[in-house]
């Protein structure tokens, strides 16, 4: 049965992205600071279809494991717009459901990635993503506001946080405005590495 998950990097002071986000400035220009641990791994570049990365260690195993368990994605329009112009073809290798008010036909890419544009809310997107996932997990890809909506609706089962040892000082916080009474939260795993600390949490709805 599909679990609903998200997997996000944040700064030590809790920021998911920086200021002044746009398609010309994805994530507010802080991706290199938050996600350097991924960029260092061969597994990340293999997923993109390129050669790269200096290491193939425990961090890489984490990347491969998360990819393997994911059967469909959900993201917000802002994240989609930031990536549309620059993402390589067939990046997600699965169906992706984009939350938007825009009416648009599906974008079918070469390979196995199709973007569907959902106009009737998060639960509709989730129902469709579950069908696409075929028993694998549904991953709420982002941005922060989309993750917050799913958390506050009580729809998330598990999440992974990768805390980079940097302070950003400002930007978009991942857990802004979260309903603190929605879940009991259990720490499932803590994995330190050189460039981040991996944390896995299980959520139990109250």
TrEMBL record:
It comes from the Bacteria. Signal peptide: none annotated. Residues 4-187 form the Bacterial bifunctional deaminase-reductase C-terminal domain. Pfam families: RibD_C. This is Dihydrofolate reductase family protein. It comes from Arcicella lustrica.
């Amino acid at each position: 049965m599909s679990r609903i998950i998200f997997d996000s990097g944040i700064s030590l002071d809790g920021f998911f992205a920086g200021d002044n986000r746009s398609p010309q400035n994805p994530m507010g220009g802080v991706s290199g600071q938050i996600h350097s641990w991924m960029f260092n791994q061969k597994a990340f570049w293999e997923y993109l279809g390129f050669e790269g990365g200096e290491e193939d260690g425990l961090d890489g195993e984490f990347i491969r494991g998360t990819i393997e368990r994911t059967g469909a994605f959900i993201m917000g329009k802002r994240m989609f717009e930031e990536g549309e112009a620059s993402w390589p073809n067939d990046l997600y290798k699965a169906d992706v459901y984009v939350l938007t008010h825009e009416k648009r036909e599906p974008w079918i890419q070469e390979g196995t990635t199709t973007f569907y544009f959902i106009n009737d809310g998060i639960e509709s997107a989730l129902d469709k993503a579950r069908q696409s996932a075929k028993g694998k997990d549904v991953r709420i890809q982002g941005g922060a506001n989309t993750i917050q909506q799913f958390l506050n609706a009580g729809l998330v089962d598990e999440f992974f946080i990768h805390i980079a040892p940097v302070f950003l000082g400002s930007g978009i916080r991942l857990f802004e405005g979260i309903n603190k009474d929605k879940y009991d939260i259990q720490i499932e795993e803590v994995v330190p590495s050189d460039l981040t600390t991996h944390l896995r949490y299980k959520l139990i709805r109250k």
